[in-house]
Amino acid sequence: MCGIAGVYQLEAQGAELPLVLDRMSGAMIHRGPDEEGCWIVPELRAGLAVRRLSIIDLVTGGQPLVNEDGSIALACNGEIYNYRTLRRELEARGHRFRSGSDCEVVLHLYEEHGPECLNRLDGMFGLAILDRREQRLLLARDPAGMKPLYYANTPKGFLFASEAKPLLISKMISAEPDWEGLNTFLAAEFVPAPRTCFRGIRRMRAGEFLSLTPGKERSGKFWTMRFDNSGPRRSDEEYAGELDRRLEQAVASHLAADVPVGAFISGGWDSSLTAWFASRLLSRPLKTFSIVFPEQPEENEAKYSRLLAKHIGSEHQEVEFRTDQVPDLMRKVVEAVEEPCTAAPSPLLYQLSAAAGKELKVVVSGEGSDELFGGYPWLRGEWLYRVRPFVPRPLVRPLADRVLDPRWGRFWRVLAAGSDRIADMEWLRGYTQHQKRSLLNPDLPFAEGPDFEPFTLPPETLESCVDRQQERLSQEFMRRLGDGLLLINDKVSMAHSLEIRMPFLDRNVIEFALSLPSSMKMRSGREKYILSKLTGRLPPEIARRRKYGLHFPMLATPSGRFPSFVRDTLLNSSRQPGLFHRARLEPWLDDVLAGRRKGMRLLWILTFLAIWWDGFMAG
Fold it and tell me: pLDDT tens for residues 520-551?
């Protein structure tokens, strides 16, 4: 695990190229405090830089990795879980390995197959390959989107990195807002790739590659989400047995490390099953970490995480989170995340990663299960879709756009939507266009076009769906997961030099989930039905639980320093004057903070945006 950066066809003189790489590498020291490396190809005016967090092959696994004749170099941020199988194949074909690194298999696999090698990889990665013979730079991001990869094509050359800050600190591109990206963030709480909130900076899509040669750029997908509905129907027990085997194998491969591995647990099914398998596969007690809320007993899941820790015999640590910590945390959180993104409770994950990062370099988590096996309660809302054909939409639509109450606003928007697919997106909406026009400065160039347009799914994905549930899970997996939840997971954990591994997003588990009938995911109102078949190994109190996501408790009950912090951030900051329409924002803000009006989620979106603006645009 590490941070990677690089340049290609840079307009530079002499020693300027290594200086640019050094600046970019220095901006990522948190991602790789153990080692740094650099490799330059003068004839291509190109180079790679790596900051390494040593996890596998601590002695000889440094990067960039270079092949036998020095013609190809690799910088890889991530882990390749099927590297042992691939290494045996490649050694049988005569390839010689210089290290025990999992990433070196990518180098030799590329020698064999070129860019087509990407589809053989099971892992999480953002990688770059510099090929002297072909004069090629190849970039790629893993199929689920666990590892981000940013790039910018500037007049001075092409540059890329694991984060946005190295691109900005390169001095080849400046921090300017992308108004269309910000418009989408306000609607969806994240920005889908390839767009970001920085003008001129792009983010690789999950499962995408980008190939550059002098004067030519080619991009495409080496993996895309396709459901396989062609297999014979099996019994519930057979499906559950298959998932059980694949999940155990995935956890085993994700435990590969030359350093201790821990686990994040919440007391829900996903993290509990992951930790249960890990505890059985490791020869030493597993270290587990959970977030607890001593101020909000109704949100506190401590009793379940304690039950699991006792059940598996782990060395458990509870990480307390209190509302008054938010003001001190938020600028650190926003600096780490780099983009406006509120799709996950980033302050909680930041605090949890900070605690785990003091003791470990690697943890496993249950992320990805909800998107593959139907864990979100909104997927149960079919009754509303049965009502939609009878609703007079021209009468309902004006009301839908203006209702500020989040729950009723969503109800009317779903009814008024022009199609079921648009209705699906309205379930997840933050701000409507009317609300944005009301609260934001009307003189700013926020886009007025469709703010959910970037969420259109690829035709091959839609063609593979046989029902509405598969379409909805495609939206969750291909958009919100990779560009929202996983983006936050990566940024806040790597801010503390901590790697989060996610066995549910193992390639073999994903393929199984895409072949699973919808009735095995949602049945009789039960989310993740197939996982219920695996919970017999967990304490009964956990096995009986329903889905309960990780909540940000102060969004429901603001108290302490939080209200004054929000007011100062939105109304009194001198660094973002004119971002909001103060005369309209202030009374709405007062009502929400006083509990007279619902809207803490919307308030949180604006707060994150304002802090980001202060730090990256005004700073």
Answer: 999 887 889 999 999 999 999 999 887 766 66
DSSP 223: -
576 band by pLDDT with thresholds 50, 70 and 90: low
pLDDT one-digit tens code per residue, 212-260: 999 899 999 999 999 999 988 999 999 999 999 999 999 999 999 889 9
Rg for the chain (alpha carbons), in Å? 24
- Token couple for 142: 């893993």
**CA separation, residue 280 to residues 47, 274, 286, 311 (Å):** 43, 10, 9, 11
Q: What is the mean pLDDT of residues 145-160?
A: 96
- Indicate which residues carry an active-site annotation: 2
- Residue in the structure block whose two tokens are 């997908």: 221
Element (H, E) at 203: strand 202-203
* pLDDT of the residue at 119: 93
Residue 548: partners with Cβ closer than 8 Å, 6 or more residues away:
268, 301
DSSP run (H or E) holding 16: helix 16-26
Structure tokens at 508: 């073999």
Which residue is listed with tokens 């991001």?
A: 141
DSSP per-residue letters across 297-314: GGG--HHHHHHHHHHHT-
Q: Stretch 563-578: mean pLDDT, rounded?
A: 79
Cα–Cα nearest to 193, from 230, 147, 155: 147
pLDDT > 90: what percent of the chain?
63
Strands (E), 511-603: none
Q: Which residues contact 90 (CB under 8 A, 6 or more apart)?
A: 97, 105, 108, 109, 112
- Hey, what are 550's tokens? 């990780």
Q: Which residues contact 363 (CB under 8 A, 6 or more apart)?
A: 261, 262, 263, 264, 289, 356, 493, 498, 499, 500, 501
Q: Quick one: pLDDT at residue 557?
A: 57
Average pLDDT over residues 32-45: 92
Handedness of CA 72, 78, 84, 89 (dihedral sign): negative
Q: For residues 28 and 494, give the distance between their C-alpha atoms in angstroms, rounded to a whole number.
A: 9
- Nearest CA to 556 out of 419, 364, 407 is that of 407
For the chain, domains (ranges, CATH) are: 2-221 (3.60.20.10), 236-375+492-547 (3.40.50.620)
Q: Kindly give, in sequence order, each residue whose CB lies less than 8 Å from that of residue 493, ignoring residues fewer than 6 positions away.
A: 349, 353, 357, 363, 499, 500
Amino acid at 322: R
CA-based torsion, 245, 226, 140, 205: positive or negative: negative
Q: Which two tokens stand for residue 430?
A: 């933050």
